[in-house]
Amino acid sequence: MASEEGQDVKAYTSQDYTLVFCRRPSQTPTASKQILLGMKKRGFGVGKWNGFGGKIEEGESVEQAARRELLEESGVIANSLQRIGYLVFKLTDIAKIMHVHVFQTFEFTNEAVETEEMLPQWYAEDSIPYTNMWMDDAYWLPLLLEHKQFIGRFEYEDEDTIVDYSIREVGRL
Prior knowledge:
By secondary structure, this protein is mainly beta. The protein has one domain (6-167): Nucleoside Triphosphate Pyrophosphohydrolase (Alpha-Beta Complex). It has 2 helices and 12 strands; from the N terminus they run E-E-E-E-E-H-E-E-E-E-E-H-E-E. It has helices at residues 62-74, 137-145; strands at residues 3-4, 7-8, 13-24, 34-40, 49-50, 77-78, 82-91, 96-105, 108-109, 118-124, 150-158, 161-169. The longest helix is centred in the middle third of the chain and has 13 residues, at 62-74. The model has no long low-confidence stretch (mean pLDDT 93).
């Protein structure tokens, strides 16, 4: 690593990812709307609740990757997808930049099933387990729940520490 004014300069890797949230109306007149989250069972983010997604493979569009990852991680087929957000994460401890394309769907088939990577569970939208999720989710997920499009940037010092962020609602992505 080169040194600039006495500080190490890291070479960051950068990659595009998708993240999909399935949502459904309340099941009874008194119940809340629901969102499908998955508990990550292995790899990056293990032990955290999140949406379903992953890397975009060569030759895939962002939407194709979102559909594929949702199916692979939950068994759910998205009949339609709405692009709702775009997030950039700078992970300084592992020198990585992640560009995340966030989608939601209300139209899908198949019941969610456990896979090698994720354990799916429906949550009432007013009972989301933010304390067991990535810290940044509390900043932008409420915008998604209100159907507001957003752009955000988060810098993590390590997996549990946000050192800087910005989030803003946008009229269109």
